C-alpha cells in the first residue's frame, strides 16, 4: 500500500495503519462495540492531529 501510494521523491508520504478488531468490536460475537470504537476514535484523532503538525 505505502509503496503504491507513497512517492517520497515528490514529497508524497504514505502511512499504513493496521488496527486490531479487538479495539472496536467484541471478538466473540463480532458485534460492533460503540464504547470501544469511541475510545479508538479519540486516539486516532489525536494521532492524526500530531502527525499533521
Considering the chains and any ligands shown, give keywords for the structure.
about 55 residues, mainly alpha, two-stranded antiparallel sheet, elongated
Quick take:
By secondary structure, this protein is mainly alpha-helical. Helix content is 42%, strand content 8%.
- The neighbouring-strand order within the major sheet is 1-2
The overall pLDDT, averaged over residues, is 94
First-last Cα distance: 23 Å
**What is the global morphology?**
elongated
Main β-sheet description: 2 strands, antiparallel
Backbone structural class:
mainly alpha
What share of the residues does DSSP label as strand, in percent? 5-15%
Question: Radius of gyration from the CA trace?
Answer: 15 Å
Give the proportion of residues in helices.
40-55%
**Regions with little confidence, pLDDT below 50 for 5+ residues:** none
Count the DSSP helices: 2
Report the count of strand segments: 2
Order of helices and strands: HEEH
